[in-house]
Amino acid sequence: MKNAPPGSYCDGGGLWLIKRKDGGAQWVLRVTIHGRRREMGLGNCQSVSLKEAREAAERWRAVVRDGKDPIKERERERRKAARDDHTLAAVAKEAFEARKPELREDGKAGRWFSPLELHVLPKLGKVPIEDIDQRDIKNTLAEIWHTKGVTAGKALHRLNIVFQHAAAMGLDVDMQATQKAKALLGKSRHKPKSIPALPWQEVPAFYQSLSEATVTHLALRFLILTGLRSKPIRFCHLDQISGDIWTVPAELMKAKKSQEQEFRVPLSEEALNVIKQAKPLSRDGILFPGARKGVISDATMSTLMERRGLEARPHGFRSSFRTWCAEATTFSEDLAETALAHATGNKVSRAYKRTDLLDLRRPLMAKWADFVTGNSAGKVVAIA
């Protein structure tokens, strides 16, 4: 057969081998369905053996016996296979990969993918994204819509981004599906709770109770004095500190990747004293090391407060500091917000604001240190 001249050669049952003048050869199945003659290609002779061609021919002849057009049926199967490749899980992962460059630590720090992974994909992950409508989304998120409102909102937002990505891929998705689902879900009854904080008047007593020269006590004291979140404290490295300035790397600050920049913290005398006490306990340059390796655990400081029967948590000291600024001082709101590394003003004003107000923050942080150590019992203070 390989050496046969160009022409058509019948194998029986409608299976033909068509040899061309250029030496190529193609398997073709000829059938009649609904009074129409159909020719269906089964592959070229080099990649499909005679045995394989006969098996394929028999498969498609069975389709004809069922009264179906084999060419249309094969196209339907191909479309289904393509849709199966575009499940919500597959498209969501692709959308996440495309978005990673915009996210801090490639999305790991803020766990961008978690709301989808935990609350959406277990139910809808295997469904082709083109088949998903607002009712599917509504039914998936209904059980957490009124109990975990913030998480459900994040899941819906991430899902909308995935649908946008699917549309960019050329898939036929309903771009309004998430908004329609939100309308079906209605207003969430969940009321987010702020992280419990100690009243600012009680901070000095708590601070002074941290009297042990342990990593946990010193880390908590440093967190209170600087007003920062726990992550920069936990990952504080000695080479980040120069004189009375602690320069926190951008990746340790909570901000969008496009807005990330290092943050300078003016260190009060008390903060420098904490560093001095912590240095003998440091390991590999890490100021507050973990018991065995790495840095102190994120839960260590919270656990200490919990064991003391307090509802307040370490993050709440930022609120304590901010309320103290508002109620017990005349420092400006802009200065207080900057001390907490919060963005102030609109995009335009931030674009032109090229200062971190470091020198103005020095007296603010010094007064706060005086207050928490008991040197200034809640008196109203102002910039000298």
UniProtKB/TrEMBL annotation:
CDD domains: INT_P4_C
Keyword field: DNA integration, DNA recombination, DNA-binding
InterPro entries: DNA_brk_join_enz, Integrase-like_cat_sf, Integrase_catalytic, Integrase_DNA-bd_sf, Integrase_DNA_bind_dom, Integrase_recombinase_N, Phage_int_M, Phage_Integrase
All copies of domain Tyr recombinase, residue ranges: 190-365
GO BP term, example: DNA recombination
Gene3D superfamilies, sorted: 1.10.150.130, Integrase, DNA-binding domain, Intergrase catalytic core
Molecular function, one GO term: DNA binding
Family label: Belongs to the 'phage' integrase family.
UniProt-recorded name of the protein: Putative integrase DNA protein
